[in-house]
Structure formats: structure tokens, C-alpha cells
Design brief:
Chain lengths: ~375, ~325
């Protein structure tokens, strides 16, 4: 497969999964990609954030995005000076609600449903812990994709290394439900008998965790048993969806050393899983002129001709010479500080293993993005022909 | 009322939104405390190797490695922590039984919620309680995940009603919830999202845990180079009236210098506005510490030393 630019990806894929380190504008970039696709390319576009830090509502300038899908008001596009060709919606993942909905939808009967929903392990699992987030995120994506209501879904993942657990969740779930361990655990519920190996395990577990907790575990997985098959089937379907050509992966980073190192980790992990990295977006790129030798020469020349320039500047702008000196010094210092960073970042970018993915460099904006107009401005950079 | 001084505490969790320099601050804080003569253990939670990179040593494992005579670094490994726990507390021998243990662990960590968190926090609390070190500095998970970790003993106590784990969770809670012992340090930059997340985390720490907030470190504060008169003179240079002067008087290539100055001034102005918001929202009870943006060519020990020096000035 040749390199497709981001504009083409947004036009042709059904799912785009955004991953990358924290603090580089990943959520904003996902929202901007969705917004520009809705505005310029048309179609029904959904941006789904699975990030527990909940920033999508902020970035979109729409308050109160919850587990339900919320449409972004077309008026907001008009206010941003764009008549959208398609529509934009947004949803955030509420782990607990999504699990409750899933159980309610798939439980074989009312009694099983209630037994699961009131199990203390279930409550704790679905409210507090990160792993349950990964799995339900996949379920939710699968469900939303399956409704056929959206032409494109842009997914924003959590900014941590375990963002990629999200990709493994279906396979892990399938493994787990067919594992011997689970049979050991649920065996007492079924027969009241323990196998030899199982007994050893139960003794260790009992000493560590206590009998009541083990009983909760047994009840929980026992109740879930009737639903295993569905879990496994959906897990396999979602694995296929992620692995085939309907889905593309986009890594977002800045050019700073730590985030780029982290982004490299994501690139490796995608490769190991045989997912194709389609695009890399580097945000907050400093002007390339900072790394030019002409600029360095100019800064040296300003220092060399400091006295003459200060005099000329004080006349031109009608300020004290002392002020003029400070302006010139500040200019040279600002340049030298930023050029150190620009050089450092240019080097880091050059070393980044981009492979066959298409690369988009987005300049550093003066202001943070906090409305749809800002998202669309970023979006224009994402789809610009180069 | 302001709580116990940050540098007098024995367990510090350094957190913050990704990208704000959390690891650098944790590394600098640990180095600073070690240079004060304390025996310090720095703990990396996610084992990415960033903390050891801050000291320019190869990635470390569960076994602490000496960086200086006073400073050790280790990386958390929950399976190793479980093995140590079983050996020390339950006298369960695990040598030669790694296979079954690993699969049991896999289950426990995947399916039984909070176990990874408790093994992490448990190991850290153990080191504090045993006084193996004067202070333990944790390069903790980012703002989204730290609460689950700090609340792990309480979560476990809710689930596991009897047995040794429940008893263990009790002393851990006491240690974590004592402000004279334990404190959270939130690292942020004066940018919109990091500040929003820091304020959210403050609310969650208060509501969902009893762990004390020891302070907020504002990282990457940009230097103030312009007073009002200089700023207005510089702005005038960008006016159409003065374009010709800029082009004719300043050396060739100076437009990049002017652009760099404009960018630096704009960033500085954005951040100082946000700092005012942060100060106002945080109030007088939580101390704020400031670290300058470091314009270094690379990261590593040199940068960590600079952070330690600035922290010593701020905390001193």
C-alpha cells in the first residue's frame, strides 16, 4: 500500500484510531480531523473519546458530552464561517454506564442481569479500574460502527502506554473466557468440586484475598457465563474490523524528545500487532526559519551593531535608548532560546521512524484551541495538500 | 492552613498531565533531597525508563540501583512485588513455582480489580514504613490514573472483607492519609489543558481520597524580558510604518529573530494570564513552586541537576 495523505484517509476509512503520548494535543487533533472531515468532505462523522480525562467537550466547545452521542449544532459551523457538507457528532465513553447497558442488552434474563449488576466485584470493576475501560471502549466502538449511522468514526485513545491495551482487549477477553483459570474459578459454582490444580490455586488465592472475595468472583463469572459466547464473538469481530482496510491508525505527537520517544513506542507496538500506521501528525512545530543559519547570522549582527541599532531604533520608535537596548537584547535572547529548541526538535523529528506513513507538521499556534473555529483551522492544516 | 512542608515528608507522589515534565520534576526533587543528605528512593511506576534516563543510567528493574551514595532508583514491577509480598508476609515459597504463580497473577491482575494498584502502592508504603529510606519519591501515574492508585487500599478494603490483604490495607491507608508523612505533588505548565486537569485532580483527590496535596510545581515558566515600554516599542516595529526601517536597518535574516521574539512574548503573555487563574483557584492553602523553562540542547543529568537547583531555591 502506498502512502495516502490524511485527507484521503478521512475520505475513505470508516474508523481512524488516534494514539500517542499525553500533552501533545491528541484529543484536539482527533476532534479537528473529525470536524474538518464533516465540514469539507461531507458524510456523517463521529468523534469518540475513550480518554477518562474527558477533554473532548472542552476542545469542541460543547458542554455535556456524555455516553450518548451528541450532535454538534450546525450553527457552530456557520459561526466559524463554514457551511458544513456533512454532520459532526461527539461521544465520550462513560465506562460504568456502557457496561450497565451492555449487561442489560445481553443478559439472558432479568435474574442474571440483576445478579451481575449488584455484584460488588462488578461495581468495583466497572467504576474504578482501567482495564475494564479498554474492553468496553472496543465494545462501544463496535456497537457504534455496527449501527451504520456514521460514515467515519474518529477514535481518541487514552494518553498512556496502556492505550494499546485497548487494541488487545478483544483478544485478551476471548482468551480469558476460554481459559482454564476461568474454569477453575467457576467450577465451585457449578459442581462444588475442585480439581487438584484448582485446589492449589484456590488455597493460595484464599490466603491472599479471603473467602468472601473469592465467592464474589465465583458468582460474578458464574453469572457471566451465559454471555461468554457473545463476548468472544464480538471480540473477534472487532479484531477483524481493526485489522482490515476499513481502519487506519494515526499517531499524534509534538517534536519534543520525551513525547517523540513515546510516539516511537506506539509506532513499534502498532507494527508488532500488524496494524498499519497510516499517518503521523506532529503538533506545535516551531517556524523552520529559527534553524536557518541566516537567522543566526542576523542575531550575531544585531549584537555586533548594538550601539548603532539602539540609536536608530530609539529615533524610529521614539523611545529612550535604554529601552531600545533592552528590546534588542531581548530579541537576541528570545531568538537564541527558541533556536536551541528548534534545532533540538528538528533533529528529533529527523530521527523519527515514519516509515511509509504520511507526515503532517502543524505549526505552533499562538493560542490554545478552544472552539470549533480553532478546530477547523487545525483541520485545514491536517488536510492541506503538500 | 498550609500543611507540613513538602520537603519534610517521607513519601511524595509526583503526578501531572502528560507532557508537562512530571518525570523531570520527580527526578530533580529526588536528587535535591539526596543532596540535602537524605537517603532517597526514586520509584518509576510505568517502567518506561524515563526516570533512569533523567539520571543517564540504563533502565532499572525492581531491585534498587544506586545513582549517588544517597540516591537509589527502582522501577515498579507488580509481579515482583507480589512475589516479595508472598515471601515476606505470608511465608509462601514461590521459588520453582513461577509458572502457576504467573498464570494466577495474570488472572488476579486482569480480573480482580485493584490488585495491580495495591501491589504498587503496597511496595512503596512498605519501603516507607520499614524506614529503608528517609524519603521515597514516586514518579506516579498521570492525572487520569493516580486517584485509583492512591485510593487502592480503601477500594481493596471494600472488596476483601477478611484476610491478610485486608489487614495490610489498613496500615497502608493510615500511612497514605497522614499529611506529615505523605503528599501529592502536582506538576503542571501554565497552559490551558494542564491547568484544567490539575484543578480537576485537586477536586478528585479531595473527594475520593484522604491523601494530602503537598504542593503544585509550575514547570516551564518563561522568562520575562519585556517591561511595558519595551513591549510597546517592540510592537511598534511590527507596524506597517516601521516595516521599511526593519528591512533596511536590521541585518538580513532578522525577520526570523523578530518572529522568535514575537512568539516568545506571546507565549509568555498567554502563560502568565493562565498562572493568575491557577493562583486564584488554588487559594492560599496550597503552595505553588515555579521552575523556569530550560533551554538545553538535550535532556539528561545536566537538566535534572538544573531542576534540582531551582527546586532547592524554591523550597528553601
Amino acid at each position: 500500500m502506498g502512502t495516502l495523505d490524511l485527507a484521503t484517509l478521512l475520505e475513505t476509512k470508516e474508523i481512524i484510531i488516534t494514539c500517542g503520548p499525553g500533552g501533545v494535543g491528541k484529543t484536539t487533533t482527533a476532534a479537528a480531523a473529525a470536524a474538518i472531515a464533516a465540514a469539507r468532505q461531507g458524510g456523517r462523522v463521529l468523534v469518540l473519546t475513550v480518554d477518562p480525562a474527558r477533554r473532548l467537550a472542552d476542545a469542541l466547545g460543547v458542554a455535556g458530552i456524555g455516553n450518548d452521542v451528541v450532535s454538534v449544532d450546525p450553527v457552530l459551523f456557520s459561526q466559524a464561517g463554514v457551511e458544513p457538507r456533512g454532520s459532526l457528532s461527539a461521544a465520550m465513553l462513560d465506562t460504568k454506564k456502557s457496561w450497565d447497558e451492555l449487561i442489560t442488552r445481553h443478559a439472558p434474563n432479568e435474574a442474571t442481569k440483576n445478579r451481575i449488576l449488584t455484584n460488588p466485584l462488578y461495581t468495583s470493576l466497572t467504576t474504578r479500574f482501567v482495564q475494564s475501560h479498554d474492553y468496553i471502549a472496543m465494545e462501544r466502538l463496535y456497537e457504534l460502527h455496527g449501527t451504520g449511522e456514521w460514515d467515519l468514526i474518529v477514535v481518541d485513545t487514552p494518553p498512556t502506554r496502556n492505550a494499546l491495551d485497548f487494541l488487545d482487549a478483544p483478544a485478551r477477553m476471548a482468551d480469558f473466557f476460554s481459559s482454564r483459570l476461568l474454569r477453575w474459578l467457576t467450577m465451585p459454582a457449578r459442581s462444588g468440586l475442585l480439581g487438584l490444580a484448582s485446589r492449589g490455586f484456590a488455597q493460595v488465592a484464599d490466603r491472599i484475598l479471603g473467602r468472601q472475595f473469592l465467592a464474589d468472583i465465583t458468582e460474578f463469572f458464574g453469572s457471566l457465563e451465559s454471555m461468554y459466547e457473545g463476548f468472544v464473538e464480538r471480540s473477534q469481530a472487532v479484531s477483524r474490523l481493526l485489522g482490515d482496510e476499513r481502519t487506519a491508525f494515526m499517531v499524534v505527537s509534538s517534536s519534543e524528545l520525551v513525547p517523540l520517544r513515546e510516539a516511537t513506542f506506539f509506532v513499534d507496538q502498532l507494527q508488532q500487532r500488524n496494524f498499519t500506521l497510516a499517518a503521523v501528525v506532529l503538533n506545535r512545530v516551531l517556524p523552520s526559519s529559527l534553524a536557518d543559519s541566516a537567522a543566526a547570522d542576523a542575531a550575531s549582527a544585531i549584537t555586533a551593531e548594538r550601539d548603532a541599532l539602539a540609536e536608530a531604533l530609539s529615533k524610529e520608535c521614539d523611545v529612550d535608548q535604554a529601552v531600545a537596548y533592552r528590546v534588542l537584547d531581548a530579541m537576541v535572547e528570545s531568538y537564541s532560546d527558541l533556536s536551541v529548541i528548534a534545532h533540538r526538535e528538528a533533529l528529533a523529528r529527523a530521527n523519527f521512524p515514519i516509515g511509509t506513513a504520511s507526515l503532517v507538521e502543524v505549526p505552533l499556534f499562538d493560542e490554545d484551541i478552544h472552539d470549533l473555529a480553532g478546530l477547523l483551522r487545525l483541520g485545514e492544516y491536517l488536510i492541506a495538500k503538500r | 492552613m498550609i500543611g507540613p512542608v513538602l520537603s519534610d515528608r517521607r513519601l511524595l507522589f509526583v503526578t501531572g498531565k502528560g507532557g508537562v515534565g512530571k518525570t523531570t520534576v520527580a527526578a530533580g526533587l529526588a536528587l535535591m533531597l539526596a543532596e540535602e543528605g537524605k537517603r532517597v528512593l526514586a520509584v518509576e511506576i510505568d517502567a518506561k525508563g524515563d526516570l533512569s534516563a533523567s539520571y543517564e543510567i540504563p533502565p532499572v528493574g525492581f531491585e534498587p540501583v544506586k545513582v549517588t551514595p544517597q540516591l537509589c532508583v527502582m522501577a515498579m514491577d507488580t509481579e515482583a512485588s507480589l512475589r516479595e509480598y508472598l515471601r515476606l508476609n505470608l511465608k509462601i515459597p514461590v521459588v520453582g513455582r513461577i509458572g502457576p504463580l504467573a498464570s494466577a497473577f495474570d488472572f488476579v491482575a486482569t480480573a480482580a480489580p485493584g490488585v495491580k494498584e495495591i501491589l504498587t502502592v503496597g511496595k512503596i508504603c512498605w519501603e516507607v514504613r520499614e524506614r529503608n529510606y528517609d524519603v521515597v519519591v514516586v514518579d506516579a501515574p498521570a492525572t487520569g490514573h493516580i486517584v485509583a492508585q492512591l485510593a487502592a487500599p480503601e477500594s481493596i478494603a471494600e472488596l476483601v472483607r477478611v484476610g491478610p490483604i485486608r489487614n495490610q490495607s489498613k496500615w497502608m491507608s493510615e500511612l497514605l492519609n497522614d499529611p506529615a508523612t505523605t503528599g501529592v505533588v502536582i506538576t503542571t505548565t501554565a497552559e490551558e489543558m494542564p491547568i484544567t486537569e490539575s484543578l480537576e485532580l485537586m477536586t478528585r483527590l479531595d473527594r475520593e481520597t484522604s491523601v494530602d496535596l503537598a504542593g503544585i510545581v509550575v514547570n516551564r515558566v518563561l522568562p520575562e524580558r519585556f517591561g511595558p515600554r519595551e513591549a510597546s516599542a517592540f510592537r511598534a516595529l511590527s507596524d506597517a510604518d516601521h516595516l521599511e526601517w526593519v528591512a533596511s536597518q536590521l541585518p538580513q535574516g532578522a525577520s526570523a529573530v523578530v518572529e522568535a521574539t514575537r512568539l516568545a512574548t506571546q507565549l509568555r503573555r498567554n502563560r502568565s494570564g493562565r498562572l493568575d487563574v491557577l493562583r486564584e483557584r488554588v487559594g492560599a492553602t496550597t503552595p505553588l513552586y515555579y521552575l523556569p523553562e530550560l533551554f538545553t540542547r538535550a535532556e539528561g543529568l545536566r537538566m535534572t541537576r538544573q531542576v534540582a537547583t531551582h527546586l532547592a531555591e524554591e523550597l528553601g
